[in-house]
Amino acid sequence: MWAMQLQKIYREKRPWGEFVEYAKNTPCTVKIITVNPNEATSLQRHSLRDEFWHIISGSGLITIGTDKIEARIGNDHYIPRETNHRLEAGESFLVVLEISTGQFHENDIERLDDRYNRK
Known about the structure:
With 119 residues, the protein is mainly beta. The protein has strands at residues 10-14, 17-23, 28-35, 43-45, 49-57, 60-64, 67-70, 76-79, 85-89, 94-102, 110-113.
């Protein structure tokens, strides 16, 4: 059995918006991701973690593998490790609950395409 350690809520700004992290490696990492209108995260994949997304609000497009899916409030999506994925907001903010399982490290992001020229 694991015991969740209390931690400070962590907030990080990105060019596309921000994320708020509520738990990290306990045994999961929980974030609320907010993508600004008409912005997008990088097309990316991870080798150490799987992700679960729950659409909280907004509109946009989700890429998982080769599938492009309209973001709909209340929908859930599972992204296995090594699967390409991206969040793209439409005309409004796209807000997503993300729960990652496995080992979480921001340097586990392999960016395949990024409109902000990050590597």
